[in-house]
Amino acid sequence: MPKKGKAAAAKRRSADDPSGPLKQRKADHVAAPSPLCFHSPAGLFESLIHPLGREEFFRDYWEKKPLHLQRSEPSVASYYRSLFQLSDLKSLCSQGLEYATDLNVCRCINGKKKVMNKKGRVSYNVLSKDFDQNKATIQFHQPQRFKDELWRIQEKLECFFGALVGSNVYITPQESQGLPPHYDDVEVFILQLEGQKHWRLYSPTVPLAREYSLESEENIGSPTHDIILKAGDLLYFPRGTIHQADTPVGVDHSTHLTLSTYQNMSWGDLLLDAFPSLLFDTIRSDRSLRQGMPRALLLGSSEGPDTSGQLAGFLRTLADEVETGKQELRSTHMRRDFITNRLPPYTQHQQDITPSGRIPALEDSVCLRFKDHILITVEPSQERTDEATELAVFVLHSLKNQRESHMMGESGDDDEDDEEEERDISQGLRFPLSHLQALRQLQQAEQLAVAQLQLPSHADKLNLVLALWTESLLEVC
């Protein structure tokens, strides 16, 4: 799962369709009925792990141990197969895919990963040769950029988890392995789409790991799980779980999809994000935190009071104020990062996310659209002035996000960083702090009369709903 951050657009270029014999197996797409429920984010997740219940999953497996669900229903296997197939690669190569950006070609040889990428654009003929003759695994990055049904699934899962959900497709030929033993920094759900895959899982050396790492065969011991995944099966394992997988003898090829989430979503990450603003706010209101620290403390030669004790006292005071509600622990960067980089709402028509219906009037009842894609946050105003910083209410949303660049990594260009900062600011609306209660009313109600909004004047009420309607976030019920 590529690292979260500013998305670098993956530009599609036109290309001639290279012909070549990637052993086109008979794998016609089947319009299989979906066994997944798309009525709500929770419903989608529950149908994904069926027949296991959601409560049981989070109680017994989430961040604790692997789960293997065997699916014998032909309808599930047929649906999974339709999500991505080996035969899809030919048409995808015609869209100007590039090595490293869109896919990797690799093979595990003697416990080490050998990358077989070429430079520039992917040639279907060369890809065919690497797959059929060199027994290479094709790792296709973020297929939700191309596959509508994966966009539909991952968009709902991002609403359910409140975190980015990335994906990769791995296609491995018979008697071959793509990657050496390793562990990841994400929660992983494996969907077996075609063929079979032999998985070996091992106890973590770093439980709930925060980074990707290779592990040598000598250090990992015996597998805790030795599993053959068949088409339609699901495998889950927590971050930090050491794993390796190969396509068994007698299986023409294996295609599986990894859905990955919860990268940098720990309590520690929340504290890293929220603590600076919490401390800054407290310094402004607490005189003791504005007093100077002991002389020569930075030189390590201070003869003042017990520094550790004083710092611990300050931290206890902060903790008490958070617990009693005197100070709010506000996440800013993590929330903006999520809303800026997540998938836009799944829709088959672009007009579905344009302003809907007639302009709201004072006598109308209204409701928010795309609630799962809206974030209301209170932050310092981003206007650059010499006056004291004032708080404002921001209504951020992901309606204008680009599916084509979802989870495609970071850009290090300073100019692009500036453009991204401007996009962060413009990706939504800013209101005075006095509008917060009215926005909360709209967020919590199924529908609400405009006249009932808790704002001082009719003009304020109409301006609020008009701004939201123009941004496609509200409609007349």
Write a brief structural summary:
The protein has 477 residues and is α+β, with helices and mostly antiparallel strands. Helix content is 29%, strand content 21%. The strands form five sheets. Strands 1-12-8-14-5-4-2-3 form an eight-stranded antiparallel β-sheet.
Explain how this protein is built.
This protein has 477 residues and is α+β, with helices and mostly antiparallel strands. The chain is 29% helix and 21% strand. It is built from 13 helices and 20 strands. It has helices spanning 41-48, 54-60, 74-83, 89-93, 124-132, 148-161, 217-220, 267-285, 307-323, 333-341, 414-426, 436-444, 458-470, and strands spanning 67-69, 103-109, 112-115, 137-141, 165-173, 176-177, 182-183, 187-194, 196-202, 213-214, 225-230, 234-237, 242-247, 253-261, 365-368, 374-380, 391-397, 428-432, 448-449, 474-476. The strands form 5 sheets. An 8-stranded antiparallel β-sheet has the order 1-12-8-14-5-4-2-3. A hairpin with a 2-residue loop joins β2 and β3. α1 packs across α6 (148-161). The chain is globular.
Into which percent range does the helicity of residues fall? 25-40%
| Mean pLDDT level | 89
Number of DSSP helical runs: 13
CA radius of gyration: 26 Å
Q: Approximately what portion of the residues adopt beta-strand conformation?
A: 15-25%
Uncertain stretches: 2-28, 418-426
**What gap, in angstroms, lies between the N and C termini?**
40 Å
> How many strands, which pairing sense, and closed or not: the largest β-sheet?
8 strands, antiparallel
- Briefly note the structural class of the backbone: alpha+beta
Shape: globular
Which strand order does the major sheet show?
1-12-8-14-5-4-2-3
- Counted beta strands: 20
